[in-house]
Amino acid sequence: MNFPEWARSCSRRSEISRHCERALDDGTRRDEPPLFLFFFFPMFILLVFGPLYVPQLRELMRARRAYKNGEIPRAKIVFVKKRVQTTWPGWPGSSSSDVFVRYPSVAGHNREATAFCQNDWLIAQLAPGATVHIAYLESEPTHAVLLENYLR
Fold it and tell me: What is the pLDDT of residue 68?
C-alpha cells in the first residue's frame, strides 16, 4: 500500500481524519451558520400567513375605496348566503357571508349587488327586507360594501 508520510506517522485514526479534512479543505470555513435561511424566513412567514390575511386586507382596501370615492345609498336585504370556507381540521376558522342587497342607483333604477360580511352577529340581525347602508363604485355596481360591517 502506498500511504503518505503523515499517515504512517499518525498513531490514531482521529489524527488521520483530521489530516484528511485539512487536505480536502478548500479554504472556506464550514462551521458558519447558513445565512440564506435568515433571508428566506420572512418569506416563509408570508407564505404561511398570507392566505389567511391577504383576502381580508384586500376586502378592507376595496371597502375604503368604495366609501371614499363611491355612492352611499340605503339598501334592502334580499337574502344572505353563507360562504363555503375550508379550514384546518379541528380549527374553527372565521365565517363569512355574501349579502345580496337591492338599492336605487343615481339614475333611479333598482340595482342588485353583493356585499361581503364577516360579522356573525350582524348576519343574524339581517332579515330579508331590512334596511342597511352600502357604498358602491359606479364602475362596479354589482359589488357593494355593507357599511354596518365596519361600524362598531
Answer: 94
Q: Where are the domains of the chain?
A: 36-149
Contact assessment for residue 119 and residue 125, using Cβ atoms and an 8 Å cutoff: no
Helix (H) or strand (E) run with residue 44 in it: helix 36-69
Q: How many Å separate Cα 78 from the centre of its chain?
A: 30
130 vs 3, 77, 80, CA distance in Å?
93, 5, 11
pLDDT single digits (tens) 73-90: 999 999 999 887 666 777
18 membership: H or E segment, kind and range: helix 13-24
Determine the 3-state secondary structure of 27 from DSSP: coil
Q: Does domain 36-149 have CATH number 3.30.70?
A: no
Write out pLDDT tens, residues 88-131.
777 766 678 899 999 998 888 899 999 988 888 898 888 999 99
- Cβ(106)–Cβ(71) under 8 Å? yes
Instruction: Give the pTM.
Output: 0.64
